[in-house]
């Protein structure tokens, strides 16, 4: 199996708390991006001390309360399945703070991390404030929920976005990359993809490759898998009959999403 493809581990942390993914620290070869998925049974708690990290807590499914310091944000979350295709609530917590998540119902949360030194205010990102964008045409159409885009100065490093791709379509396409710290031409951003499928027995294909093909891996990502993109192009193809969801986390030395398409496939953008 590819070293870029991570299967759910489902490690029981405490009563009612299961770590589905832990792509942080020694579990990851990324410098700027960390990622966890946590399942919480109703009434259970999960918390962390953020030492030198900022975190965006995304209420993937179910309802949760999130506490940081004197602030408590109650009954966050808008959906029982990500495939309801409506934005959800998130909370940004800056470095060197402590947060706690309590499950109001059974819930799944995504924890998106990046190194951070300048402490910023904790921020509730309400579902109704999230920009919904429709990109692409032909068989290259997707729906995008911009949770924490580079136009929002609430974070030091993190960029977080949800993407839906319908049956028979492609996304992160034409193949693009952001692996050069060379602004304004291109930014360096590591990235993770957390995948879900509808129906859940589905799969997608994701290729991660560089111009010189020193990295060139094509993976079959199934429901609940994570794909790590340390560099290179990273398109996703969705088979007929299935809908794809993924949550992207990006971070790098500069908080700017500036990519370049694979020149061999640039013509796809310019079709009438």
UniProtKB/TrEMBL annotation:
Pfam families: KduI (PF04962)
Protein name listed in UniProt: 5-deoxy-glucuronate isomerase
Molecular function GO terms recorded: 5-deoxy-D-glucuronate isomerase activity; glucuronate isomerase activity
InterPro entries named among the record's database cross-references: Deoxy-glucuronate_isom_IolB, IolB_Bacilli, KduI/IolB_isomerase, RmlC-like_jellyroll, RmlC_Cupin_sf
Gene3D superfamilies: Jelly Rolls
Gene name of the encoded protein: iolB
Keywords per UniProt: Isomerase
Annotated family: Belongs to the isomerase IolB family.
Enzyme class, first EC level, given as a word: isomerase
Function: Involved in the isomerization of 5-deoxy-glucuronate (5DG) to 5-dehydro-2-deoxy-D-gluconate (DKG or 2-deoxy-5-keto-D-gluconate).
Species of the source: Halobacillus litoralis
Keyword Isomerase among UniProt keywords: yes
Biological pathway: Polyol metabolism; myo-inositol degradation into acetyl-CoA; acetyl-CoA from myo-inositol: step 4/7
Keyword Lipid biosynthesis in record: no
An individual GO BP term: inositol catabolic process
Enzyme Commission number: 5.3.1.30
Catalytic activity: 5-deoxy-D-glucuronate = 5-dehydro-2-deoxy-D-gluconate
């Amino acid at each position: 199996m590819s070293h870029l493809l991570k299967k759910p581990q489902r490690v029981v942390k405490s009563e009612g708390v299961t770590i589905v993914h832990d792509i942080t620290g020694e579990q990851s070869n990324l410098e700027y991006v960390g990622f966890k998925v946590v399942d919480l049974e109703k009434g259970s708690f999960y918390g962390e001390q953020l030492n030198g990290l900022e975190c965006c807590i995304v209420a993937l499914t179910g309802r949760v309360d999130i506490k940081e310091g004197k602030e408590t944000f109650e009954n966050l979350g808008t959906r029982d399945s990500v495939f309801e295709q409506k934005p959800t609530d998130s909370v940004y917590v800056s470095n060197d703070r402590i947060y706690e998540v309590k499950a109001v119902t059974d819930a799944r949360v995504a924890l998106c991390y990046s190194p951070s030194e300048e402490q910023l205010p904790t921020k509730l990102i309400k579902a109704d404030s999230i920009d919904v964008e429709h990109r692409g045409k032909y068989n290259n159409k997707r729906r995008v929920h911009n949770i924490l885009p580079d136009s929002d100065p609430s974070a030091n490093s993190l960029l977080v976005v949800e993407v839906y791709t319908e049956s028979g379509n492609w996304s992160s396409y034409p193949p693009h990359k952001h692996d050069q710290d060379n602004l304004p031409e291109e930014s360096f951003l590591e990235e993770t993809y957390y995948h879900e499928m509808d129906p859940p027995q589905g799969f997608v294909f994701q290729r991660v490759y560089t111009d010189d093909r020193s990295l060139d891996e094509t993976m079959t990502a199934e429901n609940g898998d994570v794909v790590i993109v340390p560099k290179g192009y990273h398109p996703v193809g969705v088979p007929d009959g299935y809908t794809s969801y993924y949550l992207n986390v990006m971070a790098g030395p500069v908080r700017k999403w500036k990519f370049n398409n694979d020149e061999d496939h640039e013509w796809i953008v310019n079709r009438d």
